[in-house]
Amino acid sequence: MAELKVNGKKVTVDADETTPLLWVLREDLGLTGTKYGCGIAQCGTCTVHIDGQPVRSCTYPVGALSGEEEITTIEGLSEDGSHPVQQAWVEMDIPQCGYCQPGMIMAVAGLLNNTPDPTDEDIDQQVTNICRCGTLARVRKGIHLAKTKKA
């Protein structure tokens, strides 16, 4: 059994401590906005926040959590799509297929939490998610737009 705080709510799940957080979120809690991509923490599709920091949940064991950390998924980023990154994504029509975008949005929100006025170098270093459709140029423009918006 694991006690977690997900999107502001305390939950208890029956999961082995080695189970990746991704599968607890998707299978046990039904939060399917967090996607499976590679399973080896390379692509970033599974990115969520733990205490405001982006984490790749496909390799993060649920047993590494004490239950006090705040886990935020794409569903918990904002109730109505009003987060500055979500606003910028809509305004710039960033997604193509969209599969990687929940993880990309969470990575970018984490970047802006840590570095409110990121340079292109900051973006290159901190947002290492992969988009196979090739929307990365629009993502960069979206990040620069998002940093000008208010939460």
Compile the SSE list and pairings.
Blueprint: E1 2-6, E2 9-13, H1 21-28, E3 47-50, E4 53-56, E5 70-72, H2 74-77, H3 84-92, H4 101-114, H5 120-126, H6 136-146
Parallel strand pairs: 1-5
Antiparallel strand pairs: 1-2, 3-4, 3-5
Helix pairs in contact: 3-6
Written account of the structure:
The chain has helices at 21-28, 74-77, 84-92, 101-114, 120-126, 136-146, and strands at 2-6, 9-13, 47-50, 53-56, 70-72. It is α+β, with helices and mostly antiparallel strands and 151 residues long. The chain folds into 2 domains: 2-75, Beta-grasp domain (Ubiquitin-like (UB roll), Roll); 84-146, [2Fe-2S]-binding domain (DNA polymerase, domain 1, Orthogonal Bundle). A 5-stranded mixed sheet has the order 2-1-5-3-4, sandwiched between helices. Helix 3 (84-92) packs across helix 6 (136-146). The chain is globular, with a radius of gyration of 15 Å. It starts with a strand and ends in a 5-residue tail after the last helix. One of its GO terms (molecular function) is oxidoreductase activity. This is (2Fe-2S)-binding protein. It holds the Pfam family Fer2.
